[in-house]
Amino acid sequence: MAFEERVKELAGDVIPPDERAAERARERHLALAKPPGSLGAIEDLGAKLAAVSGKVPPPVPGDAAVVVCAGDHGVLERGVSPWPREVTAAMVANFCGDGAAVNAIAKSVGARVSVLDVGVATDLPRHPRLRTARVRPGTDDLSRKPAMNREEAARALMSGAGTAEELIGSGVDLLVTGDMGIGNTTPAAALVSAFTGRPPQETTGRGTGINDETLSLKRGVVEEALALHGPDPDDPLGVLAALGGLEHAAIAGVILAGAAAGVPVVLDGVISNSAALVAQGLAPDSTGYLFAGHLSAEPGAAVALEHLGLRPLLDLGLRLGEGTGGLLAVPLLQAAARVLGEMALLEDLDLG
Amino acid sequence: MAFEERVKELAGDVIPPDERAAERARERHLALAKPPGSLGAIEDLGAKLAAVSGKVPPPVPGDAAVVVCAGDHGVLERGVSPWPREVTAAMVANFCGDGAAVNAIAKSVGARVSVLDVGVATDLPRHPRLRTARVRPGTDDLSRKPAMNREEAARALMSGAGTAEELIGSGVDLLVTGDMGIGNTTPAAALVSAFTGRPPQETTGRGTGINDETLSLKRGVVEEALALHGPDPDDPLGVLAALGGLEHAAIAGVILAGAAAGVPVVLDGVISNSAALVAQGLAPDSTGYLFAGHLSAEPGAAVALEHLGLRPLLDLGLRLGEGTGGLLAVPLLQAAARVLGEMALLEDLDLG
């Protein structure tokens, strides 16, 4: 039970964000040279960054990194996705070769790309950007048995946490969560249903783009999995092991490590949202360090974000994953911090 | 009528964007290493940038500038805003001194700030960042007489166009429109009603934050102005002269000059949206070069954007103006262009 103990310890390191700093940021916003409240969600964002850092103004996060966590899924055997399993490894290679959407967008916003293989089923060549910590070569089919055991789930989670800690140690001050794993919206839907109590009809969507027939089959698979395991949301690691993916576990680890270190974490789409529910179960205060980068087109995303109490910053109909939607929100966080730090006060205006 | 002729000439220089390039961009998106359509609005953005530039992939706009157009308003005498007129000049000085929200956000996204005084009523010291082209010291009260005459409206428009042309000449490849002018949501509401035919109840809002009583008075003022002038949307310059502000005119000029030069123009909130209706009236193809940076909280914004056929990129409850919401969308345009230029093709993935 070594890894499960370490997860508990990490979750225990997450302290509540500094609400007094958030209050001071809101007061400062009222004094800045603009009509009160006129920067809308950017003001809320600034206050939350103040709470995360404990500072007013909050430091401008200038060294962002996306952690793309990759794994494969036994449930793919049930036909929930039209893409073959080998695409997971091929896309990991593409991340290393700078050819994916996440690479283009990371360059555009000035973020690093880190790739973590916690459970890809296909062999991969070594690459400096790729951290290999393969817990097992993909999960089992969650509709027939637990996707993994508790120790495996805990190991994958701690592997994500370790990657985040290493990045923070090297200067990263803003983490973005990303994912790759053919079939991974099925475990995401199961996790969202398990933690929110909402039925699979409301949490299961078309993922990368499936037809009506496959969608109906996919919902049935999620229903079967929930009926088989009867997940208990008060045992988040148990839910994760029964229903999750290895990359979902790793993302929960990135979140907990970021929160424990007082580093803001921007969530990408539904995979990250479902992993954040695991993190919330383990450490309820972790949501205070989270920013919903965007609202994924996948229906489980809105359900999860409501449960997390997070309002998405962008709504662009994205459903790609990889961290793309989280990265696109990074400039908004940077601007929100700068506004608090650089604007003059209303009382300093020269009215002649 | 010299300036009115020059406006017509400029409007005539706006040619339709290259729809074949947009089509090629959409085809390229289908071939990139991701599920088709999975980048949602970012794909539409890339296609529109291709149409604007005529190139696939479109060049990444790396030298953005916001043009903050400033003017004062005779209608302020009617009590439509709680802020005194002198705030316009004080904020222009603040833009020059790097202390406003637009400065902080421009720095954050790497954009230049250019300030254009086309009609501030208070004297201002010279500053290298400030271009002074004051057509008159503020407009007349639109609810009692025309805000300005046609020649003044045309001069203010050409002054915005000249500023945009100068910036483009110095390397700027992305324009953002911004505004400053105490009282300027009242003429914006009147313009939106005049061009869309929608009643003042649907186009007039709380601006920088007014109470119910002032809102009711403001709607009445817009109604009076529309009844007095009976604006004809087929005479856009006449509508602008009767109901607009000098900064609205200048922004219409920035839009037309950008469109004529094939440079993308990102709109800020309701002032820019209402100016875009003027530009659309003068040159219907100009909307093909426009990007709606965000949806302002001011109700006329949604009405105007619907009429322009533009979908806002951000929805953050902003109602500050200055160009802030337009600037926040700049990283999305840059990312959209990079995605088209830098991603590998699906057929190049190595599936083992």
Account of the 3D structure:
The structure is a homodimer of 352-residue chains. The first copy, chain A, has 352 residues and is α/β, with parallel strands linked by helices. Chain A has 2 domains: 3-59 and 337-348, Nicotinate-nucleotide-dimethylbenzimidazole phosphoribosyltransferase (CobT), small domain (5,6-Dimethylbenzimidazole Phosphoribosyltransferase, Chain: A, domain 1, Orthogonal Bundle), CATH 1.10.1610; 64-334, 3-Layer(aba) Sandwich (Rossmann fold). Helices cover 50% and strands 9% of the residues of chain A. The first copy, chain A, has 15 helices and 6 strands. In chain A, helix 12 links the parallel strand 5 and strand 6 (290-292). In chain A, helix 6 crosses helix 10 and helix 7 (185-196) runs antiparallel to helix 10 (236-243). Chain A starts with a helix and ends in a 10-residue tail after the last helix. The interface between A and B is large, with 63 and 62 residues.
**Largest interface by residue count?**
A-B, 63 and 62 residues
Average of per-residue pLDDT values of chain A: 97
Number of E-state strands of chain A? 6
Enter the CATH topology name of the largest domain in chain A: Rossmann fold
* SS class of chain A: alpha/beta
Overall helicity of chain A: 40-55%
Helix and strand sequence of chain A: HHHEHHEEHEHHHHHEHEHHH
So what's the oligomer here? homodimer
Q: How far apart, in Å, are the first and last alpha carbons of chain A?
A: 71 Å
Task: Kindly report the spatial arrangement of strands forming the biggest sheet of chain A.
Answer: 3-2-1-4-5-6
| Low-confidence residue ranges of chain A | none
Tally of individual helices of chain A:
15
Largest sheet of chain A, in brief, is:
6 strands, parallel
Can you identify the CATH class of the largest domain in chain A? Alpha Beta
Number of domains of chain A: 2
CATH architecture of the largest domain in chain A: 3-Layer(aba) Sandwich
